[in-house]
Predict the 3D structure of the following.
Amino acid sequence: MRNIIVATAAGLVLAVSFIGGWVTSTSHARVATPAGDPLNPSQITTSAKNLPTMEFVDYTFVFN
């Protein structure tokens, strides 16, 4: 019983130290801004051509 309590306490200390290190760390990653015009979803959807078509068969009201 005592070993379980010691192992649990050690696990909690380890978890708290990892979470604390993750929260306090800072990222120095740089993200470049996109060049050119931003994407316009409305323009993309209205100008789409030659898209594949699919047949949908609805079997909702099929009675035997």
